[in-house]
Fold this protein.
Amino acid sequence: MDINDFAEHLFAGRWMAGTNILDAIKNAQRLNSLGITAIMNYLGEELTKEAQVSKAVDMYIKLIRYIKNYKIKADISVKPTQLGLSISESEASANYSKIVAEARLASVFVWLDMESENTVDSTIRLYASEVQNSGVGICMQAYLKRTESDIQKLAKLGAIIRLVKGAYSTSKSKGFITREAITKNYANLMRIVFEQYTEFTIATHDMEMIHNALKMNETYKRKLTIAMLQGIRNRTAAELAKKNKVSIYTPFGEQWVSYSYRRLKEAGHLKLVLKSLLEKQGV
Ligand SMILES: Cc1cc2nc3c(=O)[nH]c(=O)nc-3n(C[C@H](O)[C@H](O)[C@H](O)COP(=O)(O)OP(=O)(O)OC[C@H]3O[C@@H](n4cnc5c(N)ncnc54)[C@H](O)[C@@H]3O)c2cc1C
């Protein structure tokens, strides 16, 4: 095994469902057997060539048909720059609509991932073009100061959101920089989401936020889902799934390097990374 194969085995094996669609289906079936819904993502982002974009769109269409045929409980989650946003917004919009139309026929829910801050306006516009027909959701990031106003506007459209802390970085003027400040804003946004939304996903591994959400839901009684990433705290996810709606975001594909890099970066320090990699796979 050379160093690339070793790295792929170590990282892709931990944080991803595998490199091909059948790996992804098998992994989703395993999650389903634990009462967990898979959120399936085909890896790829910042695509600038038409051929790469078409390949990604075709893969999502195929994935939707597989989910339907194998009767899997799974959503899909797509990245706008994978659908051609780096080429043009109209290209991304046409591809997003094509995927959503296919997904509606198969009753598969479609999430829009949120990427770096320069894509937020166009991602919200893509989402707004489909929100009225239901079956679609959008990710919102607590590290950006604008998000509070964005989620208030999206609530009025009847949106379904997935609240995350954010995997990207920003400037002090536009965002919260420290983990503490981001977490504080996450708690603030979560309160607004409970007040203004009927259905949403709290996507974090921060146990304090998860416990707070479950506690608040005793009062609000919303359609609440807790979501985590594949390979992080998944034994806790399986425990939570015994009494709550739980999803796990599970990417697959060959483009695993940038995704692994983000997971490594947010793990913060080597000890945490090693602990996460060496921990026995719970699910
Ligand atoms: C379902 C889902 C979908 C997401 N979609 C998006 C998206 O579309 N756009 C986007 O910007 N971000 C997305 N994210 C990523 C998110 O923004 C955060 O980067 C990520 O979830 C880590 O933040 P946290 O909320 O877990 O809190 P943190 O404060 O970072 O972590 C809380 C605790 O979780 C554990 N932990 C967190 N990360 C790791 C890790 N990599 N390895 C080991 N332990 C770890 C640690 O114990 C840590 O103390 C998504 C996350 C989830 C769960």
The two ends are 26 Å apart (CA to CA). The pocket of flavin-adenine dinucleotide is lined by residues 39, 113-114, 139, 141, 162, 164-168, 179, 203-206, 227-229, 232, 249, 263, 266-267, 272, 276 (CB under 6 Å). Residues 50-69 form the longest helix (20 residues).
